Amino acid sequence: MVTTKDIAIKLGFSVSTIGRALSGDPRISEKTKLAVRAAAEELGYVGNMAARMMRGGSSNLIGLILPDIQNDFFASIAQALSQSCDRQGYRIVLSITGDDPETEMRHIHDFVGARVAGIILVPSADMKRESIALLRQVQHVQLLRYASGPDDLWFGIDDGDAMERATNHLLDLGHRRIAYVAASDRLSTGRRRLRGVQEAYRKRDLPLSDLSVFLDTPTATWGERAINEMLSIADHPTAILSGSAHVTMGMIASLRRAKVDIPGQMSVIGFGDPNWCEWWQPPITVIRPPIQSLATSCALWFMDRLRTPEDRLVSSYHATSSSELVLRDSTGRPARS
Amino acid sequence: MVTTKDIAIKLGFSVSTIGRALSGDPRISEKTKLAVRAAAEELGYVGNMAARMMRGGSSNLIGLILPDIQNDFFASIAQALSQSCDRQGYRIVLSITGDDPETEMRHIHDFVGARVAGIILVPSADMKRESIALLRQVQHVQLLRYASGPDDLWFGIDDGDAMERATNHLLDLGHRRIAYVAASDRLSTGRRRLRGVQEAYRKRDLPLSDLSVFLDTPTATWGERAINEMLSIADHPTAILSGSAHVTMGMIASLRRAKVDIPGQMSVIGFGDPNWCEWWQPPITVIRPPIQSLATSCALWFMDRLRTPEDRLVSSYHATSSSELVLRDSTGRPARS
DNA sequence: TTCATTTGAGCAATCGATAGCACAAACATG
DNA sequence: CATGTTTGTGCTATCGATTGCTCAAATGAA
């Protein structure tokens, strides 16, 4: 691979001169600069980031840790983050953990080894202590999920508030018995969402017994099973709230198979707004989390932080972006009973 | 950040000894090794990859260039690739180009600068010459799309063959007039798919005029528009083939709105098998490209290649994986006309 | 006790880019 | 003509990990 030394030899200058010419140092004459640039171009010179880094400090890499890239949610984050970072010259090193704490730890370790400028992560469900210790060595910020760590920097969405608003919408329409189908409350996000639903009931002094909660895994299969089970209840709920897009899919597939009319016999609100929610018949009313804007503002904030001198860094920062309740055709008044 | 020097000072050894102890050199006594490892652990030492690399040669990074990570197709690739590479200690540096040749070039340049061990890419539609020149400096392999470059290393799917089989399936069912809705044939993949459909007609000596081709963009909106247009034809096709998952979605939404029964009045075969195809009512018959296995075998082959000495590298290698035609309930015999 | 051999560890160079300092040549000023 | 100043380059150390070579101490054999 071509180095500054090769250019130096070719032109008869010293390595220093080449380096200065390429970085536009004013001490080098225009004539020399032109010659150097031409030679660099001709030889196909590309500066060695590793060497540059060793001298100067940090790299232009930002580590991104996600549980799963095939999930719409996380893919949007990757997309938005990648764009924002690109604009400021940062590159993304990707880690997909599959929510496995071991993998997560290995990758964090490697990121520290690669001397990334910083790490943006959606923590796994059970983050290891070692991982937290490693993170301590690097600038980092948590996204969506919150695993209280060495530092307290977090960008999330209004899980609870969004759910509360969605529940209120259903209650306003006249529904009383509602089913909430979601993943387990092992994750902070899950807990907040469940609490949001309950909060809506509490604030209206409605009995929590009217709320049927089905918690398991964030899969379509679970959504389907939960709804099948729910439909078998004698006096079953008239509306359902989903805690994740996959669950939504299973739910509505189950409803259609059972020939339950949406929204005639059952109102549905999904969480997350993948493409198909809009194209489904009827189009599904959903809570749309502000993923893109969340990721973008997080990226900008983080890159700004990376340039801030150590002594002026805040040690704690929490930001929440607000979800949107997108009203489509899957919600309506409950049927007279 | 902690370096070997810090450990050396703490223990009173030289840096060389520390380095040897950590890498398990047999010349260092067990006792010393233990002491060094303990100290490293205690101080939270993490080796500097950049320094290690400068000396030794290449890094443990593999550049991955994708047009779009939110696309199911590409997300699967990222997932599979990430897993395979992880197992062998490689990390993924991600580039999302948005199919923009400029961005693509910038990122390739940075990858070369970062001295990645290799690059795996799904080329953008109009790859720049400069990009190809840069790629020449690094080991690389193309995925899915094929932009004849400096070298001829490519892992793809059987676009044409898969389409031909799908078309044959419809022809076998008795359909004669078929609509093919897809993105433009600007990409090599698109061209191969279209040719596959046509090939099925040719081989049976059926007139290509029975085939209605709608080419534009790979979006749901286009799928919808195309189908609306198609339905307005007096003696319209009795079956439709989609060239991409987004198009499939638009198509079936349009059909449902027009109250066209699937498969009673219209058979549908989608291309690509995102989750919802299985959950839709009726479940959609699709061509399922072997994305995961493609990515995995590509990753394994590529990492093996990275370890092969220069003089034993083959300069050309093409591999194609076969798609699966997943029969579900959206295809049937045409209605008597 | 002396010499040979094994064992354990240090010195110094290396990778590529950068930056402080030194220095020669060209020029201006008295 | 002598001295000061500007301009353009080169020399060399530096970052952190690695490695060939050197060398001292410990061990064994005669």
What are its keywords?
homodimer; 337 residues; alpha/beta; six-stranded parallel sheet; six-stranded mixed sheet; 45% helix; 18% strand; DNA-binding
Shape estimate of chain A: elongated
Estimate the strand proportion of chain A: 15-25%
DSSP helical segment count of chain A: 13
* Uncertain regions spanning at least 5 consecutive residues of chain A: none
* Biggest interface, chains and residue tallies: A-B, 58 and 57 residues
Largest sheet of chain A: 6 strands, parallel
Q: What level of helicity do the residues of chain A show?
A: 40-55%
Q: How far is it from the N-terminal to the C-terminal residue of chain A, by CA?
A: 77 Å
Please write the string of helix (H) and strand (E) elements of chain A: HHHHEHEHEHEEHEHEHEHEHEHEE
- Radius of gyration of chain A equals 26 Å
* Structure class of chain A: alpha/beta
Q: How many DSSP-defined strands of chain A?
A: 12
Trace the largest sheet of chain A across and list its strands: 2-1-3-4-5-11
- Integer average pLDDT of chain A: 94
What oligomeric state do these chains adopt?
homodimer
What does this structure look like?
The structure is a homodimer of 337-residue chains. Chain A is 45% helix and 18% strand. The first copy, chain A, is an alpha/beta fold. In chain A, the strands form 2 sheets. A 6-stranded parallel sheet of chain A has the order 2-1-3-4-5-11, with helices on both faces. A 6-stranded mixed sheet of chain A has the order 7-6-8-9-10-12, with helices on both faces. In chain A, β6 (178-183), α9 and β7 form a beta-alpha-beta unit. In chain A, α1 (4-11) packs across α3 and α5 (72-87) packs parallel to α13 (291-307). The first copy, chain A, is elongated and about 90 Å long. At the A-B interface, α4, α5, β2, α6 and α11 of A face α4, α5, β2, α6 and α11 of B. Chain B binds a DNA duplex (30 and 30 nucleotides) through residues 3-5, 13-20, 22-23, 27-29, 32, 47-48, 50-57.
